[in-house]
Amino acid sequence: MAVTRPAPDAGAARRPVRARSLWLLLALAVLAAAMLASVAWGSRIVGLADVAAALGGADETIEQAAVTKRVPRTLLAVLVGAALGLSGAVMQGVTRNPLADPGILGVNMGASLAVVCGMVFFGLTSPSGYIWVAIGGAAAAAVFVYTVGSLGRGGATPLKLALAGAATSAAFSSLVTAVVMPRNDVAGSFRMWQIGGVGGASFDGVVRVLPFLAVGLVLSLMSARALNSLALGDDLAAGLGERVALVRATAGLGAVLLCGAATAAAGPIMFVGLVVPHMCRLLIGVDHRWLLPFSALLGAALLTVADVVGRVVARPAEVEVGIVTALIGAPVFIYIVRRQKVRAL
């Protein structure tokens, strides 16, 4: 008697979706735990009862006041980490470059140079103005690096883009130093901002940056299916009906909005956009419909944890989150560069 067997790909199609959903739930749980640790741990450890009372509106004890002060810092760390993780995943998809990252490609330094030029030469003092200027600088740097990396035979290869980004980032960093050095009135505050951190967060700052991050998030997630087509190559993507130039422009704009606004809010934090997408691919694969939201969640969790670590290891002082992420990201970057298949994503 013939035995009826289930379709071989039906279970295979369900299992990855189930596994990816479990990973997403786990990422949400890790993020929630990191946020709880962020409001409870620091120079003063706060108990769960005081955390609950402070989140409920109480502000009567020193511990509850500490929790109230840490809430906007936690929210900013979540938003900036999500923005950097998502923008890194989008940039890697747009360029098909496993080394793409807002820091490595010079986008963060482009935003930094634009902000410092606005402060020094044009007297820019408005926090909202910082965001617009940072986004403009990030966009200009992204276009410049992609244009330079596209010159010559073979177009925009991963190696050429990485070299162009590294050279541009170094040049912009030198220009930032040259612009700031004669101005002692802005050197101190800008130096702390340039390290990258979320210590000066406020609810007003979070609200100002939120609309830019929301637009960047929407544009990036809307490009997920098209990025899957781009991974097959421009010719195949065009054959599947994708407008390659439009897809790159839309996704690139979303990534620039995300990293520009994040840089304006917290400074040029490095390596989050590089490390997080690679971690996510190991867990859930290369489908951008899953990769992009998972990169946002894991980026938020990573930056929040890094901020908590920076506050705990040097109590009562703290290590800025930009230094912690650099310590984590630099070895990962070296590992990725040494891999055999670094030339293609």
Describe the structure.
By secondary structure, the chain is mainly α. It has a single domain, classed as ABC transporter involved in vitamin B12 uptake, BtuC. The protein contains 14 helices and no strands. It has helices at 8-40, 48-55, 62-95, 107-121, 127-150, 158-180, 184-195, 203-222, 224-230, 234-239, 244-266, 272-284, 288-312, 321-338. Helix 4 (107-121) runs parallel beside helix 6 (158-180). It is globular and about 65 Å long. This is Iron ABC transporter permease.
Number of discrete helical segments: 14
Question: Quick check: average pLDDT?
Answer: 84
| Largest sheet properties | none
What proportion strand?
Answer: under 5%
* End-to-end gap: 48 Å
How many structural domains does the protein architecture include?
1
Helix content: over 70%
The run of helices and strands is HHHHHHHHHHHHHH
